[in-house]
């Protein structure tokens, strides 16, 4: 499913067009192959020093399918145990990343995306979203939920230049993660039982609905 981002930039009930900064959204099996193509010969080929940020769980879930992408990136694998989007995680990224990093790939769910979008914003580096679970609507968010000095807060952050959601990856996420995403929505057309079973079509519908919800949040300044 190639999502037309223009659908999210057309006039809403308020009569205004809302800015959408995400250039491409792809939700389908094999989406990471399209990402690799974009990096090798497409609109992302200008970025020659990408940093891929994942955690130990999402690395295990993606490294085989994304082998060619891992090979072309500097890769930072964060420990998934008790991982938080906080100052400590940001410092790990800052200490690891080379000075010439020009693109960040967030390969994970909410926490990895918050860390990645915050760092991308601070260093004015574009980032690409690669969701590994349909666990929430924050993949295209304009803010990151960060914990600083023990206080959780929303801070301005970067919007991804592109989102590649590979059904072969996110439909196989732990059932509880995708169920959490479904719980955020009130769409009765999305079957929770099919989501928990990892049904590809149901998971794709969920991912689309979450991204649509995220764009609605963008329009409201969230």
TrEMBL record:
- Please name the InterPro entries in this protein's record: G1PDH, Glycerol_DH
Please provide, in alphabetical order, the Gene Ontology terms of the cellular component aspect for this entry.
cytosol
Q: Which UniProt keywords apply?
A: Cytoplasm, Lipid biosynthesis, Lipid metabolism, Metal-binding, NAD, NADP, Oxidoreductase, Phospholipid biosynthesis, Phospholipid metabolism
Report whether Mitochondrion shows up as a keyword of the record: no
Tell me the GO BP annotations in alphabetical order.
phospholipid biosynthetic process
For this chain, one GO molecular function annotation is: metal ion binding
For this entry, the protein name equals Glycerol dehydrogenase and related enzymes
